[in-house]
Amino acid sequence: MLKHKRKRQIKERSSKKQKTENSSSEFCLPTETSEESNKDSLEKAQSDYNITNNHYNIQSDDLDHDEGALIVDHETQESEGGEAGLKKYLASCEKNPGHKQFIPIDKFKLKHLPESYQDNDLYEYIKALADLTVKLNVKMTSLDRPKFWSKTTHPYPFSKMSDRRNLRTGSGRVRYVNKFKDGVTHNLIIGSSDFSKCWCRKCQVSDSPSNVWWEFYVFTATHVVFDDIEASHATLRLFYDRDDSPVVSVNNVSIDYRDIDGDWCVLKCVTCDKYIGNKLMGMWRHNRNVWMKIFNKYRNYTSKNKLNIIVSHPHGSSKQVSVGQWKDKHKMGEDRSKFTYTTCTCPGSSGAHVLCLGYSDWWLYDLVHTGSLKSGLNYSGVGDVY
Questions:
Q1: Which region ranges are annotated with the description Disordered (predicted)?
Q2: Distance of CA 118 to CAs 43, 109, 124, 127, 146, Å?
């Protein structure tokens, strides 16, 4: 029997004093010469996004005066009935009854994007982003969760749970897939392995552990998976594109990095399943290639582009795409920001990647969904974006 021991230093970062960079709530529209044309274009853009006028009238100026206003309600789905109980939360959802603004990934088409954004490269990137989106199931709540969000009186999610073994679900995104053979890799992008054999749970108790394995990282929200206690009771469901998708999962998960104040963390995962490893590797490489096209095409238009895309697992269901616009960029220090947006989310969306077109969060830090505000806007954790 192999006994694997690994030392990890969990780094924690505190966010700096918040500053807000306001942005226009209008979409990137063609230049018009008349007031009537501007009105028509805005109405068309609103129709394209299928968002009610109430979303457009939401004001977030109060966020400039109250840092605590950014922390209102997380969007992790809790289920007392376990996996089988998730369907009732989907059916009884009060935030988005009917979920008409969520598009199942297997039905997502170019036409679902606003007309001015019906770009094949952008469509391909959203599909590639969806490929790497995962559902997180967590069946333990750590006693080490803080009572409140930092520097506020807002209770930290699940810090007072009476039953700490209730199922919680969230979303995340795979980043940086590495393949190892006898502890050596030729495609290392970030991170390294401390092992010469696979260290998944099956191999840890095997007399002949695999000498080939894949390690990959998943970005999600810290309030979804807080520490190694919770990570040891977490399962990632991969490739969950339809209700009838086969169950493909990984359950060897640990915390590699976390930022409690910024509400994002990195999970390190391992598998020696060749189907999972090779498929993730191919998806990751494709995602990286199409992202470069999108970033180079839209990087100079952040002052005009307000397109916001989220792919998540609302209520623990299969992957859904939601399309909206980001409203404000709240600066939390040099290159560190959080965003508010109209894009639809539900419980179960916490931890999902937040795409603000034109901004880069590619290299080390992800921008993940955190929760919703009383005003109706949704908001992200802190990410390094530029």
A1: 1-47
A2: 18, 10, 11, 13, 44
